[in-house]
Amino acid sequence: MSSAVEANCDGLVGPTHSYVGLSPGNLASQKNAGEVSNPQAAALEGLGKMRRLADLGIPQFVLPPHERPAVSLLKSLGFSGSEAAVIEQAWKDAPALAAAACSASPMWAANAATVTPSADTADGRVHFTPANLLTNLHRSLEGPQTTRALRRLFPDEARFAVHDPLPAQPHFADEGAANHVRLCADHGAPGVNLFVWGREAWGHWDGKFPARQTREAFEAIQRRHGAARSVFPRQGRAAIEGGAFHNDVVCVGTRECLFFHERAFEDRAGMERAVRAAAEGLFEPAFVEVSEADLPMADLVASYLFNSQLLVIPGEGRLVLLAPAETRDNPRAFAVAESLASSNGAIGRVEYVDVRQSMRNGGGPACLRLRVVLTDAELAATNSAQRFTPGLHAVLADWVRRRYRDRLAPADLADPDLLIESREALDELSQILDLGGDFYPFQRAS
């Protein structure tokens, strides 16, 4: 067994962070549609969370925002002329398309990819499959640039395999690590991968909200990655109908502990049997379940208790749950969270973090990060300029304060100056993070 740690790759919030309600089934996104956002505050909140985890001794990396507005999308859909004319015409004739082209959704890095650590793969490399995210138009734009970003962060092909996304076809609808959990005795030891799916490609789905992940997508990823000891539990229909559009809204796990809501899985008992069988000889799973009686779905979705980060802190024997401030503010969720430490179970304490700008679009602490288990040698093979340090924090915080607006109404997305501001910001960022001068489409076009 190699020594390894679970690193976090956090998505840096982009300059077009806004509330336009693009995501059916995401109740917070729908509720806050039309409100004024604060991109500067959102980015600083995200940086603050990164700093907090880095200070706790957890390796932390920065994933850059994508270029937005995505003028190339609008041009491909028939809008022509100068870029300013394209943006103006799109907002006039097809505002839903224009809004999708402006989305800062790559900030939610839990959807960036599914990751299998080297301890679990057939070839001993860390494998990544960027998500195609095809259920929603604004997210389906992300795959190619996410692939490019992961290949810049993990460039050593002898240690890392960054695949292309799965075919952009409904049979292989893939939402990334937001529906994946890995359990293990130790991060460097072989583990059990839970690939949680909402529908089968050839089955019938008639739910009020879309079931975004297909079983077939995860089966393809499991084959690609050579992921041993995998199980495929189905996400609870009641959870999806209640606003849990990804499994990480109702479930989080790390090391031996799986912390989940009663409605997270369609067949809870079957899930537990499958995990125990896959873990036999490796570790004894610890299942921590919260009942609907203790935390009704409405309070769960409002508080995002399970969209927390479950952390292994160096020097601490029990796990730490980093929950959104909304969990602390919801009496029922707070009672459940605080009962964890007193139970003498796997979770020893709960801390709270303010990521309210992200939460208003339905993304808690867990949504903002992609977890990647890395050995010491793999850590050393990453792009060091993206490794989060106090110095990088200072540089990025200054960059955000200089480059980001502190107020953005949905109507402001139509301002052609926003495109210029965003590109200038990203051009500078590509130098800060050593991404190269051709990382973004606008850099390659110039």
Explain what this protein looks like in three dimensions.
A hairpin with a 7-residue loop joins strand 12 (309-311) and strand 13 (319-324). The chain has a three-stranded mixed sheet with strand order 2-1-15, with helices on both faces. The protein has 446 residues and is of the alpha/beta class. It is built from 18 helices and 15 strands. The mean pLDDT is 94. It has a single domain (4-68, 103-436), classed as Succinylarginine dihydrolase (L-arginine/glycine Amidinotransferase, Chain A). It starts with a strand and ends with a helix. It is globular and about 60 Å long.
- Give me the count of strands: 15
Secondary-structure class = alpha/beta
Q: Characterize the main sheet.
A: 3 strands, mixed
User: What spatial order of strands do you see in the largest sheet?
Assistant: 2-1-15
- Any idea what the CATH superfamily is called? Succinylarginine dihydrolase
Fraction in beta strands = 15-25%
The top-level CATH class is Alpha Beta
The CATH topology, please?
L-arginine/glycine Amidinotransferase, Chain A
Shape: globular
Rg value: 21 Å
Low-confidence stretches: none
Number of helices: 18
The CATH level-2 architecture is identified as: 5-stranded Propeller
